[in-house]
Specification:
By secondary structure, the protein is an alpha+beta fold. Helix content is 33%, strand content 19%. The radius of gyration is 20 Å and the shape is globular.
Length: 341
């Protein structure tokens, strides 16, 4: 049985108290909300914080403000996001992404902020301590070599968050707090393409809210590739959002890729290509090709990396067809079945 290491446990009741604890404890402190990713990692000795700072008792992190845009507290569970009528109606891509994370039991615990800040994953990293010790530890934890790309000086562990690509496509912003005050950043700027140092969030900062912009005229969609129809992390995620004119012309578009690098990212060329065009099958196919050209998966997760790259164009097409208004329910069922074959 894998056991948790010893740690001190703090249960603050306000964001200010969280900030004071983080500032005082330094690098030895880690935040825990639902714990669905951190606690298994601690059991495998990926992380061994001296202090866990629990966020579940901080009421401000559970708040929702509905206006021209939408402010979602980072402490909202994923199931609370899924149950939100405002999210489902106005930010469909985020609703779809949250609904496809793990299982209902894990979504009851896991939070929006936790999924946004999810640790990167790798076949060689996400094993127990004894397994990793037997092959010699990897670059991400305790070792000096990347077993995926042995000549690489950078860890290539993959970003496996579902909500981040959807939020990037939606042009969301994040609010971070520390003793120095609050700051806002575009969600795309939260991530680095580095499997170890993958977040720009400072050690003494806590993510407090996700800020979604005004949604009038926008449609969005998120498509996830995984081996099983539930539970699994994505091995490819494609999010699309577009603002359409009354005649169907794309006024603005944003497409984002997840699980194809150490960070989720915006595919700028695809969005620029779509601007001013109607979402015909030919235009969608070309946009899919542009998305696939940016997908550079590594052989460090499930399914064949070349196939994952190849299907990026198809998944971008599915997302854009859904944005166009096509009924994609049968396609979603077929895609889920094909992944199992």
């Amino acid at each position: 049985m894998m056991r948790l290491p010893w740690f001190d446990y703090r249960a603050p009741r306000s964001v200010d108290e969280v900030a004071r604890i983080l500032a005082g404890e330094g690098a030895g402190a880690m935040l825990v909300a639902g714990g669905t990713d951190l606690l298994p990692n601690m059991k495998r000795r990926h992380q061994s914080p001296s202090t866990l700072v629990a966020l579940r008792g901080v009421a401000d992190l559970k708040s929702v403000a509905n206006g021209a845009g939408l402010r979602l507290g980072a402490g909202l569970t994923l199931n609370e996001i899924v149950k939100s009528p405002a999210v489902r109606a106005r930010y469909t891509g985020l609703w779809q992404a949250a609904a496809q994370v793990a299982t209902p039991q894990l979504r009851n615990m896991g939070t929006l902020g936790g999924n946004v800040c999810l640790d990167t994953r790798c076949t060689y990293y996400n094993q127990n301590h004894e397994w990793r010790e037997a092959i010699d530890f990897c670059l991400k934890k305790d070792g000096e070599i990347c077993w995926v790309a042995t000549a690489s000086k950078r860890c290539v562990a993959v970003s496996s968050t579902d909500t981040a690509p959807a939020l990037i496509a939606l042009d969301a912003r994040l609010r971070l707090a520390s003793l120095a005050g609050e700051r806002e950043v575009a969600i795309a700027d939260l991530y680095r393409n580095d499997g170890i140092d993958y977040l720009t969030r400072k050690p003494d900062e806590v993510l407090t809210a996700v800020l979604l912009p005004e949604s009038t005229g926008w449609r969005s969609s998120y498509w996830k590739l995984r081996r099983r129809g539930a539970f699994d992390f994505p091995v490819l995620g494609v999010a699309a959002a577009a603002r359409l004119a009354s005649d169907g012309t794309v006024e603005e578009a944003r497409l984002a890729l997840g699980a194809a690098a150490s960070r989720p990212f915006l595919v700028d060329k695809a969005g620029e290509f779509l601007k001013g065009k109607r979402l015909t099958d030919e235009v969608i196919a070309e946009a899919g090709t542009l998305v696939a050209s940016r997908a550079k998966p590594m052989d460090n997760t499930d399914l064949d990396l070349y196939w994952r790259k190849d299907v990026a164009s198809a998944f971008a097409g599915y997302a854009l067809r859904e944005v166009r208004g096509d009924d994609m329910r049968e396609t979603r069922i077929r895609v889920a079945r094909q992944a199992l074959q």
